[in-house]
Amino acid sequence: MKKILFVLTGGTIGSFSDDTGHNAPDAEKAVPILMKGLRESDSPFRDQEFEVTCPLITLSENMSIHKWNMLIASLRNVEFSNYKGIIIAHGSDTLHLTMPLMAEVLKGCPVPVGFVVSHRSLEDKTANGIVNFISVVEYINYLRSGVFTIYRNTDGVLYIHKAEEILRCGDFSDDFYSSGMKVYSREDYMNQIEEVEKMGDSNASDIMEAEEMPIRKLRPLSDSVLVIDPYVGINYDNYDISNVRHVLHLTYHSGTADSEKLPAFIEKCAAAGVDVYLAPVSENYKYSTTYKLIQSGAKPMYNMTAGAAYARLLVQDSGDQR
I need a labelling partner for 312 at 20 to 30 A (CA). Which of 18, 45, 107, 286 fits? Predict the structure, then answer.
C-alpha cells in the first residue's frame, strides 16, 4: 500500500490550550489523535499508512510569504509518484489563500492533494477535524489528481471544495462555501470506484512530467503584489506602490469598484510601471462602472476568486529560474 504524505503546518487542527487557556500551535500532538480517529472509524481506508513531515508550525493567521516558501520548498523535490496522495493540515483563516496557491505551484501533480482543517481544537468534542481528516483520506483514494478540501459545515454536511473555488469564511462564521461545492458521500464514491479503476486516469491530460511542474521551476515567492479591498471613503493616496509590481484590486460582489476615484489611481500605477488587476469579476459583468475601470487600463481576471487571482499573480511574478 502506498503511503499518504501528511504535511503539518499548524492551524487550529494542530493547536491545543496553553497555560493561558488560549489555543497555541503544537502540530505533532494532533497526529495521534487524528490517527486514532481514523483507525477506530468504519472507513474502508482506516488502515491507510502515512509519512509525516512538519516543515513549519504556525497559526494560519500568521501565514506569510516566507512561510509559504518553506511549505513549497518542503514539497519541491518530493517524488510524488511514490505516494497515494498528499494531505496538508492547515488553519481555516487563510485556507482560501493557501489552497489556490498550492493549486498553482502543484499544477500537473500526478496525485491528489487534500487540505484538512478543523473549526475547533481537537480537544473539543464538537470539532470537525477528525471527520474532515477521515473524509480527505477516503477521497484521496478515489480521486486521481487535483487540490481540494472536504469540510463539515455547521449544518452537519460534508462538502467538497476545489482549491480554485473556495471562498473566505463569512464574518462570525465557521462555514466554507464555493461555487462548485458538492456533498461528500462515502457511499457515492465507493459505488463509483470500480468504474473509476476501469476508466483509468480521467485527468491524465492535466498531469505533467515531474520536472515540468511549476513547483520544480519557480523562484521563491516575494511580496510583489499589493491587494486593495474597496470600501466607502477609500483614499488611494494612502497606498504606497513604490515596492510592488502588481496591484490586485478586489471588487464588490457585482464585480464593481469606485469608478470615480480608481481610474486616476490606475493611471498613477501605469506611470510607475505597476499593473492593476481586478477580481473577482465575471466576463458577463453588467455595470458601466466596471467597463470604465477596464477602459482605464485595469486588467480583469475573469471568473477567478480573490484568492485564486492573488495566487496566480504571485506565481506569475516568481518567474522561471531556468
Answer: 286
